[in-house]
Amino acid sequence: xxxxxxxxxxxxxxxxxxxxxxxxxxxxxxxxxxxxxxxxxxxxxxxxxxxxxxxxxxxxxxxxxxxxxxxxxxxxxxxxxxxxxxxxxxxxxxxxxxxxxxxxxxxxxxxxxxxxxxxxxxxxxxxxxxxxxxxxxxxxxxxxxxxxxxxxxxxxxxxxxxxxxxxxxxxxxxxxxxxxxxxxxxxxxxxxxxxxxxxxxxxxxxxxxxxxxxxxxxxxxxxxxxxxxxxxxxxxxxxxxxxxxxxxxxxxxxxxxxxxxxxxxxxxxxxxxxxxxxxxxxxxxxxxxxxxxxxxxxxxxxxxxxxxxxxxxxxxxxxxxxxxxxxxxxxxxxxxxx
Length: 338
Known about the structure:
alpha/beta
């Protein structure tokens, strides 16, 4: 655990960020203003925010949001990233250099102290991806410290009266964030190319999916033994499964990530289980549990050994989502051929 800062240092940080101290403008800001690109207004989770310049010291929470910034070439705008519990592959993605250019500030959850220590002027996180009422790290709390924020669209609260998340189809959420960030940081061309390339990769995968015949039923297993956490209609796996030619057995769950009962999984009899690989419990350990848990013995996916593993960063909103569609489409094509 990080040592708490003294009251004096916290007040000093607040004075610098909260009283309108002007951050020195870099070349990108001057170029953008000269071209008339600022001010820009974007809508995020239903709220509109106007930017007079691009944030200069961004802290991101979780590997997916760091990689969104890296994929847009925005490393120079970052003060650092937080990547809780992530032990997955960081070397095979086109934007891997971002990991050597930007400091990892913590492998724990983001905190106000961490944000202030980094002299951040903007935090890119999500509800249950760093933002949470319980932790006290929220957009409103950061605003009181003079720090701006942006909420990952996959994680937007959907206004259903509870904590359910998701306001649009998952890949649309990714494209929305890429477009918004492109405007905020005056890199619209980079964002447009990344979106176009992503859509092309997804379309190529979809072109391999047979138009007729039954679609394999797929259950996303994130974690949990008493009750599994899975992906509903507003989490990235829903679109990944659908566009890969499968059917998410939890498509009626109007949330992003949520717990369900094993009896529901058994009743819906998935043909394939996709494991979300992250954290201290390995994919192999998760597979061992699934294949040895008696209630699942007659589920087709378990009975036939159809268990596929994808990385955490593939399965949360991130620029890896299109490649995950292609990978799962290839696997499901083999399932149909059996």
